[in-house]
């Protein structure tokens, strides 16, 4: 039970950051701890066992019990997938989410039921009266999209649905101010955003600032500047997570150019149905039992996809190949299958068009611009978009079959990252193959998260092909420990990895320079050019006296790459 009395803002589920990561972790909890009490000891045992599972993403914790609570109570419990009292149990909604055919529908229903306050989130002052995800959906629909910044600045303050119009006007005024600033070139956009955050947060927390109560547990620095910076980061984290959860429902997508989440046109009727039929009022509950009877069912609230006529309408908008009279003979589940198949067919068409544009370097400028947006964290889920944008870059760069292991939504935008036990990208060519791993992590964390896993992915892929295999590791900066690890493996015959490993570490700026060289080459490089370049960079490790010399050699090779491509 969380106490939200005195809080100034709403919140969205932030753990786990991506909702479908809950599935494996809930399944593991239920299959190994169902029927046990959710005690500190159980929490510790759960987390210590979880870190050894192949799907786990994260690191060892100095407080396993706290880490377990963070993973289970924020997402799975708050959304009604698990019940933790009196003992650990899977709810009907949880069963549908974990084992059902349409987890995105179940997730959507639970997000629509999530409300503040509730018996899980106690507000003694009754300041809160809102269903956060419902009102967020309404704003996205009414304003034709929302950016992460707009959610962090304004939506986060919608503690009562009756204040909806006030928040809507604030966002509209913000957009006008942003346009005016851009037209008059008053300050750069990042400075404009920083000023707006300072203005909004100073107003929101005026009482705390006046009384000097501005210290936070995230920092020992009790200055106003630190307080504003930490609040801005927290609000942005909520905004980022809210967009991920919206997109996981299958009704929303994200545009990397406009930096806004918006309703998929083909699902607009679904969103309109929700906004018309789901009550905006947060319900009062006399007991926890009454609340869980509301939260745990898997089939409420009713969605447009539960309605035969609504489903048939959606199918007819997508395709004319199914006669209406035939559709009326189908069951609801059969109609859902038909609609899903049509969306998948449309996605194949979208991806085919995207590949065609990439191979002509038509998307070069957008790829480079997207790398800038990722580096500035302007995009929701920048790590995921780094995988997707690198896939686009590899598609553009050469003539192989480039497969991203991330999942995309029905508009081709990345939805969630590659599973932890697979490479991010696999590139298949006539006489060699390459895996590509990308990360935004840095420092020691980069080595812990990417050192052994990348080596293992490389070794596993090597076992499944007779062709030579390269691995390309891309990060904003290459940590010295990571570099040293790959250098040692490149010079050492390790049977577990299939011999000497050819893992090429590239700083993101070097990779972007490689793309620039390819675009400017008189003849665009092909797979053989890529193979020669990778082979030369790998051989440098055998000649270099240390890892720093090897890395400097790699950077030099990038600088001159493709410059000698004959006309």
UniProtKB/TrEMBL annotation:
Protein name, UniProt field: Restriction endonuclease
The organism of origin for this protein: Candidatus Staskawiczbacteria bacterium RIFCSPHIGHO2_01_FULL_39_25
Alphabetized Pfam families for the sequence: RE_AlwI
Domain of life according to the entry: Bacteria
CDD domains associated with the record: BspD6I-like
